[in-house]
Amino acid sequence: MEPDAPTNALMQMLYDSGVASAIRESGSLFPMLESLHVLMIAVVVGTIAIVDLRLLGIASHRRGARQLTLDMLPFTWGAFVLALVSGSLLFVSNATKYFDSMPFRFKLLTILIAGINMAIFHVTAYRKIGEWDDRLPTPPAARIAGFTSLTLWIVIVFLGRWIGYAAPLV
Amino acid sequence: MTIDQFSRTIYESAISTGIRDVSWIIPAVQSIHILGVAGVIGAAIVMDLRLAGVLATDETPQAVVRRHLPWMWSALALLLSTGFLLGLGEPDRVLGNMVFWIKMGLVVSAFILTVLFRYPILHPDYRIEHARMAMLVKPMAWGSLAIWAAVIFCGRWIAYTQ
What we know:
The complex is a heterodimer. Chain A is built from eight helices and no strands. By secondary structure, chain A is an all-alpha fold. Chain A has one domain. The mean pLDDT of chain A is 94. Chain B has one domain (3-160). Chain B starts with a helix and ends in a 5-residue tail after the last helix.
């Protein structure tokens, strides 16, 4: 990575901010934020997996795929927002080092791809969900979306865990 | 044999050394462990919120538990086996650690709550309003969710305590 002066200055500014030093200086804030982050990731991945498995054709607690998605979506999004907030706070606490971490960069990229995959699903197979809502097996487009999403979120969990091991982050 | 000696014996064993010698094993097993946590939490959210009367109330508790309980058991089996491997690799990190034992206590209580309040539901004649301890079903559902959340917090705190 070439040195990028404005970005590095921004990362240094985040690192020097009051929030960041408060997290670094407190013995318990960082682990508390990490715990919240893991809990929210568990909710995001757990609820997404339930929908993805249904898209792959595994029956869930209700017949309709559409209503199942609507059941799970508020939990997925609520937890995603809290994971984003706790993750951002963890990031600023050591912005300069996390910014340079390759697993961190790949994790964000993979989350972006998972978002794109979801968007594609919503404008393709989901548009016609009336035709396959309570039908099993599911159409190929839904199966591909479910498989892709499940794979990407598994990768995201691995990349997240690797952030803590790949670089000596103090 | 004290717990410290026991921990040291495991630590010095060939399998424990082997786990530590390959740098990617522990983070990989930890990642699988987190995926297991996601499996338990997903199943717990749907079952407990159904029992709390919040989610999927148009479906019977039976239908919900029948679908999600087996997934919860599989996820718990995955957690037990990956957790065992992690403990084998780094026994000094957990065996003498109070937070680890609190976590195990919480896991056992969540497990007992799940068995007590889920299995009767699978019975074909089960009606939630006639259930023994019917008054307790809702508070227990919220309680079990809270315990799983506490388990996750303890799991992360193991890394910060002795």
